[in-house]
Amino acid sequence: xxxKIILEYDGTHFEGWQSQPSGKGVQDHVEKALAAFNTxxxxxxxxxxxxxxxxxxxxxxxxDIERDIAPxxxxxxxxxxxxHTPIVALHAEIVGxxxxxxxxxxxxxxxxxxxxxxxRTALLAKRVWHMRHPLNISAMQTAAMDFLGQHDFTSFRSTxxxxxxxxxxxxxFMIRLHDEEIWFEVSARAFLHHQVRNMVGTxxxxxxxxxxxxxxxxxxxxxxxxxxGLTAPPWGLYFVKVDY
Amino acid sequence: xxxKIILEYDGTHFEGWQSQPSGKGVQDHVEKALAAFNTxxxxxxxxxxxxxxxxxxxxxxxxDIERDIAPxxxxxxxxxxxxHTPIVALHAEIVGxxxxxxxxxxxxxxxxxxxxxxxRTALLAKRVWHMRHPLNISAMQTAAMDFLGQHDFTSFRSTxxxxxxxxxxxxxFMIRLHDEEIWFEVSARAFLHHQVRNMVGTxxxxxxxxxxxxxxxxxxxxxxxxxxGLTAPPWGLYFVKVDY
Lengths: 244, 244
What we know:
The structure is a homodimer. Chain A is 20% helix and 30% strand. Chain A is an alpha+beta fold. In chain A, a hairpin with an 8-residue loop joins strand 2 and strand 3 (55-64). Chain A is globular, with a radius of gyration of 19 Å. Chain A binds chain B through residues 8-10, 55, 57, 75, 79, 83, 86-90, 119-123, 125, 127, and chain B through 8-10, 55, 57, 75, 79, 83, 86-90, 119-123, 125, 127.
């Protein structure tokens, strides 16, 4: 039986989603927990391979389990074995035998949170990117519109990105103020490695007045990583949800 | 010169506000930081002596400092010395020589956050009280109205409470839903020890249907701690602000 499972996790103390020789990938913990109450050692397929320090509110995995177990029971058993970790299964359901959490994803939604005030934050450390200086929200909103649509995002992908094609289509990019937090919400079918963090890092430079707000098209046209801004740190990034 | 300073802190790893032989009180860290850039060892007076694990968004202290230092510089110097702790100075100002953060407080505002859903929370551990079961918000709202006004709160104070008088006046009690969080916001000139956590613990029993929503007056009348509900855990409690 194939299952789809939605996971929430605090990425702070993991080396990203993917299984690591150190055993510190989120995947290592989830697969170990699944193996603890199944005779086989189930292998998971993930919607988004989050990096070290990146959080998830709605990560999705698909996994085959030999014995027939009710989805709610699977969720409870998984949570029982994950109880000493900051990983929680929110939901499980039975899906068709061809379903893939990765391949069938129609839209991936990310949120990046910048915390904007002079003093540090005592309560949101490792949850937000702290910015001492004010940011011009409307300049960033105007600039973000230039990311929409299909572009070659070479300037915004990690030089280590292994994707064969650098073209992606950004469907939505909204920037909103929530008290002292600025939320960057971006949606696309798929993203390149570091694409969200590089887009946010560049927008923040625009928000601080270090770049003009009409620079995005020329940065995209350059197809050169060094033309764009810095990579925003991982701890402000949340993998929010996936549409299928 | 006397200063008023507003502090934010994550109470998780401290043994409450008050100075401890272990050195693990928030006060110990703040006074050590103040002593690091002053010739004397300044002693602080605090608005609210928070317990172990309780957080502060707007704790207030008053403190005398011999040398004349601009408030903004005081804030920066204090933050520099507190940088390895989850304690942040948000604001400092010069006040009159008779000002006391404790004695002059006209109103203290607390928030208690319950996180209500079946699975645990990966991202808000030690920030909220997790409740697996749904709560009846309107029953709790109705019951909370019976706390308003002046009462003998003996039933809602810790048996270790050292206050000579058990009478307090609750001025406002609002219960609101924020997605999966329930915020209990309560204001009074002063509170007894554990009063907020005991009121919230009792309201949650009403929200779960374990007590009737009209029980509060008889619990107050009993003047007996055992008549009220359990003490809500400290990690859901925030000392929000003080009016002077």
